[in-house]
Amino acid sequence: MKLLTTGINIILSLNLVYGSWIDDENGAVKIDQVEESFIDSIYGDLVQTSESYEYKLKLYNEGKLKVYKEEEYKENDLEFMLNQLLESQEYSTFSEYLESSSSVNYAINSHNAFRKYKSKANYPDDDDTSDLLTIDKFGGILTFGHFKYFNCFNPKSNSKKIDIAIVGAPFDTGVSFRPGARFGPEAIRQASRRGFGRTPVRGNGKPNSKLSKVDPYNTSLSIIDCGNIPMTPYDNRIALNQLYRGERAIHNHEPTISANGSPKIITMGGDHTITLMALKSAYEKYGKVSVLHFDSHIDTWNPKILGGGITNYMSLNHGTFLHYAAENGYLNTSSCMHLGLRAPYISAEYDIKHDHECGFETITARDFDNVGRDEIIERVKERVGNSPVYISVDIDVLDPSNAPGTGTMEVGGWTTRELLSVIDGLEGINLIGADVVEVSPPFDTNSEITSLAATAVIDSFLGLMIVQDL
Ligand SMILES: *[C@@H]1O[C@H](CO)[C@@H](O)[C@H](O)[C@H]1NC(C)=O
Ligand SMILES: *[C@@H]1O[C@H](CO)[C@@H](O)[C@H](O)[C@H]1NC(C)=O
């Protein structure tokens, strides 16, 4: 102990270089003989400092590092070993030795030499695949957040339980401007590849927030990526009916938490039209829902104002679906809200009146500056109370600088941080379903920022859904 301390002092005072000798009671020890740790064997003096020597000595002192004595070191040295053999057994050449020694000795000695001189990477056995079973950021088939997959629509899997389902709705023939959202689900999955977990910001950093302790990717719940619902690109009526039946099939699974009655579904759009079918299925399971609609557009447009008028077929689209949701009774018309609105009305006075009839109150994009986040959160919580809530996030609620890959961009929106901060602030609401829509990968940047934002929104949905079951 005392001598080791001396060793440390020597190192500190002389600032010795890699490989220097230290005295201890058992004789000289070479620092580079300490058991390989970290990157010593590869990079050694490239990164060594006097502090790292000191650290190693501390580990050695605590018995956490083995130090090879000179003799042991030499025992592993092929040249030394051969010399010893040649001296002691009087063989004049190595091959003479090989010929005369037993094969066992040869194997042991070869092995020792190999251990000393082999490449520093320790490769597993050629037939060992145990480390290839991991589903990590690059391994396995891609699902959202690397959650498990099974075909949730196949009657053969009806008995499998689902608490939260994530499902893709690849549909974009209800869009009025830029198409491409049919590729949204895959892009969102791709952006989720790196994975998430517990974070310092979930729960908005409030110390007594249950949400701050949630890790959606490590729970006992059954969270399943159901894949995409096949939606035909040839007829919107059939496509939307396929979506409805797909959502319904998922809702018909049992959850592991039976008190919840039915799985909660997170749908990845697709253009915003898809929300109508998600709402229909949710309404059939949970009754009238309070919709929190994060969007730059009202989307309650009367079809007479937007799209419709010539054929009935034209009347259902991504700007009118909330009109139909209200008309068909899916919405609790005393508790719905728009958040982040800023896009122009088409027929201002009528649109505002009709929007109220559909059950919506409005928090505009600029209310973030006018009243602030906490007030927004308070107003939302007060309005929805304990009612079943469905959150629909049109990614165009974000400013185009944060989400350029979308169907109908509007400037002056929230940042990703502001959006996530509002959603996470809703801890405690009864969130039964959610979606994120209008992610159009062909218009995204090549760093996928729009998809990445959508991925984070889903991560926040998961937090809100899971925290209710803790
Ligand atoms: C998952 O949670 C368990 C228990 O809560 C914990 O012991 C474990 O370390 C967690 N795993 C990861 C990867 O965070
Ligand atoms: C609608 O929401 C309000 C506010 O949360 C709630 O009091 C009411 O019971 C809900 N109505 C229905 C039909 O669910």
From TrEMBL:
Pfam families: Arginase (PF00491)
Keyword Hydrolase: yes
InterPro entries: Ureohydrolase, Ureohydrolase_dom_sf, Ureohydrolase_Mn_BS
Keywords from the named record: Hydrolase, Metal-binding, Signal
Signal peptide: 1-19
Lineage top rank: taxon: Eukaryota
SUPFAM superfamilies the UniProt entry points to: Arginase/deacetylase (SSF52768)
Family: Belongs to the arginase family.
Protein name (database record): Guanidinobutyrase
